[in-house]
Amino acid sequence: MEDKTxxxxxxxxxxxxxxxxxxxxxxxxxxxxxxxPRWQARNPVMFVVEVGSVITTIxxxxxxxxxxxxxxxxxxxxxxxWLWFTVLFANxxxxxxxxxxxxxxxxxxxxxxxxxxxxxxxxxxxxxxAPQLRRGDLVVAEAGDLIxxxxxxxxxxxxxxxxxITGESAPVxxxxxxxRSAVTGGTRVLSDRIVMEITANPGExxxxxxxxxxxxxxxxxxxNEIALNILxxxxxxxxxFAVVTLQPxxxxxxxxxxxxxxxxxxxxxxxxxxxxxxxxxxxxxIDRLLQRNVVALSGRAVEAAGDVDTLLLDKTGTITFGNRQxxxxxxxxxxAMDRMVSAAALASLADETPEGRSIVAxxxxxxxxxxxxxxxxxxxxxxxxxxxxxSGVDFDGRSIRKGAAESVATWAGQALxxxxxxSVETIARSGGTPLVVAEAHVVLxxxxxxxxxxxxxxxxxxxxxxxxxxxxxxTGDNPLTAGAIARESGVDDFLAEATPENKLDxxxxxxxxxxxxxxxxxxxNDAPALAQADVAVAMNSGTQAAKEAGNLxxxxxxxxxxxxxxxxxxxxxxxRGALTTFSIANDVAKYFAIIPAIFxxxxxxxxxxxxxxxxxxxxxxxxxxxxxxxxxxxxIPLALRGVRYRAIGAAALLRRNLLVYGVGGIIAPFIGIKLxxxxxxxxxxx
Amino acid sequence: xxxxxxxxxxxxxAVFVCAWFLGPxxxxxxxxxxxxxxxxxxxxxxxxxxxxxxxxxxxQNWFGYLxxxxxxxxxxxxxxxxxxxxQDHLPLxxxxxxxxxxxxxxxxxxxxxxxxxxQNYTGEQTMSYLSQMLGLVIHNFLSAATGIALxxxxxxxxxxxxxxxxxxxxxxxTRAILYVLLPMSIxxxxxxxxxxxxxxxxxxxxxxxxxGVQQAIAVGPFASQEVIKDLGNNGGGPFNxxxxxxxxxPNGFTNQFEIFLELVIPFALAVMFGRMVGNVKQGLAIGGAxxxxxxxxxxxxxxxxxxxxxxxxxxxxNQANTATQAGGNMEGKSVRFGPIYSxxxxxxxxxxxxxxxxxxxxxFTPIGGMVPMVLIQLGEITPGGVGAGxxxxxxxxxxxxxxxxxxxxRTPEYLGKKIESREVRLASLAILILPASILGFAALxxxxxxxxxxxxxxxxxxxxxxxxxxxxxxxxxxxxxxxLTGNTIYYNSTLGAAMWLGRFxxxxxxxxxxxxxxxxxxxxxxxxTFATDTTxxxxxxxxxxxxxxxxxxxxxxxxxxxxxxxxxAAGHLAH
Lengths: 686, 575
What we know:
The complex is a heterodimer of chains A (686) and B (575). Chain A is an alpha+beta fold and 686 residues long. Chain A contains 26 helices and 21 strands.
């Protein structure tokens, strides 16, 4: 119970809002630290703004000494302040995004840093603080212990409560060998004893790697971010040409422009909005995945998620519930339904497989003996084996078997009746599994076992299709069964009788056709395919090999998460595009504010361009600069939250976003600048 | 006036219809397929390759293509330079013109090599027939063929060929001349000659005027030169008056026919693009963007010219179109064309990179004169010079796709090819060159005494003259706002540099872009892909072009034509 509460706390913290004090205060401090020019130089747009701010500061100070007029100093001073604010707001956006990511990661990590580990050295046990553990150390954990670090179970089996990481309260089994051997630091052993080998040094766990991604100091730009930065730098250079050449042109026209106004114009024109928010958008993309309990191990993977064309989905667990269930009983001709149902139930009473339980449950619904009171002393159960391919029960001289059609027929010593054979074939063709039931020498009928497709999955796939994604179901089933499930679930294609090799081949084939592939995996078998895929989501419950091959780790180990990951990737790219478009579209209004303001005194005819009817030249320039700075703050929530992704197809999405951020981006500043102008005129700041 | 507007519409319509049919022909020619001219042209083509040692099927990578192109340009540039310098020692110089001065000869050689055809000289008083026919006309073909070849190379790179090579420059240029420019010039030249465009090798006849004065009438073998001047978007006319001269452009029909010649290949190349990438609609989207800007710009220029000079309106002059007067702004226009057709010609000659003129752009109203200037500053991509327009437009398409493509939630692709940092870097570099050259040289000129000595007019109009000159040369247009005294060492060299930058420095990143796109895997289109064959994309592309272009040049335009317009409207005259 205590654990559960704690996990709820984490969840709460992970969804913490923008105005969280613990994030805001450090972010403000960080905004000032980031004024360091070496830091700013990473971002060409904001670097230009900072250089501009320094120059206007010098102009302002020089004005004080030279005794410039009060109104000039007021104007230069205000422009300078707002230019500095522009840089600070950009720093702040980045710092908040970083702070949120770090807070989320810290919440995940907190549990493990204070742990004491029981390290085994030459068979002796010693207690050491968890941060001292190194890769290769052997550690013991028993019921009630918290697991001190990430590792692999090398001995024993235990049930583990992973709710601190996943929020899922049901315990999971972790055992040595196989695909369920990975344990995560901070989770609690509920029963039994395991020996585990630590697989990561402190500072190298996947959580540490993720924290590195959100901490800008060590953050590497993703490919699309680099490309966008180049475009922004190019636009900055173009506008520098426009602004720098303006002075000679003005001189020729018999007037001149002050350096403060030129810098104000330049800052307004270069794409500061997107320049300021670009890195915050990237970090926020990683944060948003973490909110969904997915740890990104590279920023590139998040970006690639938006580009994915083909999703490889494991049938079991993603498309179907993972186990076949009995859906109907088909008695042979001349056999009463009651007899058939009761025999089927009796044969399955001790069958603890999900299939067996589902037969008993279905029988119970149809009035047969249920699992609780149906079991009697003296019953001898015959377990399923690969050689006999059937299971059953012997009691009171009766002998009942259920299993593969041919095996049961052989056991019964007679050929299958025609109607039973027919129903067996029908069931197999429909993708189900037929189980034949026989008592003594009488074939009683057929049980229809079926993979149950998760509700809503078909709708989800058609949504994906509208997004332009192709889904491929991966299954070990035979093509017949696979085909039936594929039809029912609406998946676009399937790979039946999948092996690690043909899975890898399928990925390579898709990639050769220019498509990007995403998949999930948990087993060591999956590692090569995970390494080959563009977006590879490893389940946290999976093996170390799988986790190392993946570029995203799903703490919930939920294969359907892939769909959300794709959406998160798209959302990040859309946010970038939308703010870039908005930023460029904004420039139109700024020109109409500043150009007439610059020249109206010397060339009064150009006042005709002052379409916003701004109060005076100073108020016009100032309003544009203030708008330019404030729009960054206004858009921080959007940058962190991301522009909503709608699965409405690219054409509709583009039309919508162009309207909102393109056309809206042209109109908004006309209104904003006018309002600011009215305000600063009213309070006599210009 | 209504009839004039109908005439304009018919001309544009004729261009679009013919481009629609010419496009597939171009696609076949450059795809090496058989066309109806093959029986005649193919043997000539093969023997040319055999003589010159060109291996027809050896494709080049982008760098090889670039080097081949530059070598040809340099050699032909020097060839023309030498001919101009020593024309007094060469035949076909009946008027005995002396050799051209070094700076002017170099400026002219660069000008014709770069398809600019900026003329700092008066043709009929400077150039011998040999200089015109060999030294200059050779470039009218070569530079046009070079433009087409470069565009074809970029289109190949974008299309899904799965090759990292982009074609063979020599083959592309040869085919452009043999299959496209020459046959069309022959037909077009005959049509022009039939309308009275002059074609003779005789010396200038002497007329005795009624006043008893003797006047030498300049003539020459010009119908053949006229057709390629327009068809190849060169624009350098044999006469100083260019297409305003009755021997170059005798009547209304030839005027519209010359507009047709200027526009038809650039638009056909857009159609060819659609064919070569396997989706005609892609070509229509690009061609549509070109047409949209051109037609709107023509409309603005026509309205501005027809409504006349705002200063005259202000003092009550009747400038209306009536039965007895053309109305509008008739200064600097031929009566046989009037404001509407002159405005259409101005928009077409600057929307393409032609630069021939049938009226004085210098005498247009400020807004009417701003239209050609803006069309050049947008990069001459609507529809742009033969080839140059298409590759410029495709570069903008790459930028537009990159900016807006993100908004569908994928890293941007154009025709399935991912636009990544290398492509963005190269496309940005290309579009940076234009403002750097135009604004940089204009700023230099208004600062230096040698530059300030150039303009004829004071104030905003003088500034427009300088700005126009560098826009025109950088854009390889060649039309002049006149007024500017360009034949000085300062202007000959700076304008020459601008032409060189605008043509050959510009194409280096473009060819590198082609090389970068050529080998790329093509991602198949899906419902999630940003479609570039829609009207939405056309609109977006136009938006990006206008916003990027307008934002770059708005301050300069405000101090030039816009200021002049508002001054005239307010009744203030420059002083």
